[in-house]
Amino acid sequence: MFCMLMFKRSIILSVALFSAVSNANNLSLEVENDVAALGTLHVQLFQSELGFSQDSKDWQSLTPYQEQHIAINGQNVSVDFNDLPTAWYAVRLYVDENANQKLDLSRAGIPKEAVGFSNNPMLFGGKPKIAKTSFKLSENSKRQIKLMKDKRK
Questions:
Q1: What are phi and psi of 9, to 5 degrees?
Q2: d(Cα 72, Cα 39) in Å, to the nearest integer?
Q3: What is residue 3's three-state secondary structure?
Q4: Quick check: 111 and 103 in contact, CB under 8 A?
Q5: Which of 42-46, 48-52, 70-74, 140-144 has the lowest mean pLDDT?
Q6: E strand or H helix at 149, and its extent?
Q7: What DSSP element (H or E) covers 18?
Q8: Among 53, 99, 121, 131, whose Cα sits 20 to 30 Å from the Cα of 90?
């Protein structure tokens, strides 16, 4: 009887461990720095279990799930996020070129520093809707993000 109970517990523990491991996904970002930006790359990963609102552009109301800061010297870089649960994600990044710890914007709200978003949306209409940048992560994934910078002075 004792052996049977221990056997059942070990099976349950094995299934629980397998489930936890199978939900651990890795995300690798390849950041294409065609604009030769220099400074600190701020990479913000946002998570939602149910997906993001289809209309929201309010990035300020979101809290990053994880964030990384990496020195960037005009070249492409790789950024890895490991052991992520299956969920919806969006990535926003910018290069802090003048070390003031924020994204500098013009009076019209146009970024003065290089920016990028997952799914590489066009930025003609300003900040992209969060849902346009979101993706479901349910397995290991590699994604490319292009840094963009307004060429107007």
A1: -65, -40
A2: 5
A3: helix
A4: yes
A5: 48-52
A6: none
A7: helix 2-22
A8: 99
From CA 58, how far away is CA 121, in angstroms rounded? 16
User: Which tens digit of pLDDT belongs to each residue from 35-60?
Assistant: 999 999 999 999 998 888 877 777 88
Tokens at 109, concatenated: 């709200």
Please calculate the CA angle 98-102-103 and round it to the nearest 5 degrees: 85
User: What does each C-alpha distance from 58 to 53, 71, 117, 126, 142 come to in angstroms?
Assistant: 10, 27, 14, 12, 26
Residues in the chain: 153
Q: 3-state SS of 62-90?
A: CCCCEEEEEEEECCCEEEEEEEECCEEEE
Instruction: Tell me the C-alpha distance between 142 and 138, whole Å.
Output: 12
Distance CA 124, CA 109 (A): 12
Q: In the numeric block, which tokens belong to residue 62?
A: 């979101």
Look at residues 133, 115, 116, 119 and name the one whose alpha carbon lies nearest to residue 57.
133
Q: How far apart are CA 118 and CA 53, in angstroms?
A: 16
Q: What are residue 136's DSSP bridge partners? A: 88
Q: What is the DSSP letter of 130?
A: H
